[in-house]
Design a protein that fits this description.
By secondary structure, the chain is mainly α. Helix content is 86%, strand content 0%.
């Protein structure tokens, strides 16, 4: 996997992971913002593919997608626990 030593791949991976983090930071999920985030993430993955190849794009896209899904799930669980605590002790 020669793309692991490519600096542009690491930069585009960081961009893709940052964009994948955005849904977990949003207070309310609106369709327009989710579509915009998905397009930005797709652009970063395509940039990975153009600069480092198809396998690099698959690896970077998979890692960043998994990162975004885990953070969004953690955010949803955290907000659910907070709401449950607020209802119980208020």
């Amino acid at each position: 996997m020669p793309f692991l030593s490519d600096t542009t791949w690491w930069i585009t991976l960081a961009v893709a992971m940052a964009v994948a983090t955005l849904p977990s930071l949003l207070k309310s999920l609106r369709m327009f913002l989710l579509l915009l985030i998905a397009l930005l993430w797709l652009a970063a993955v395509i940039a990975m593919g153009v600069s480092a190849g198809f396998v690099a794009a698959l690896a970077g896209g998979g890692v960043s997608l998994l990162w975004g899904l885990l953070l969004t799930l953690a955010s949803l669980i955290s907000s659910g626990v907070q709401q449950m605590a607020n209802r119980r002790y208020s």
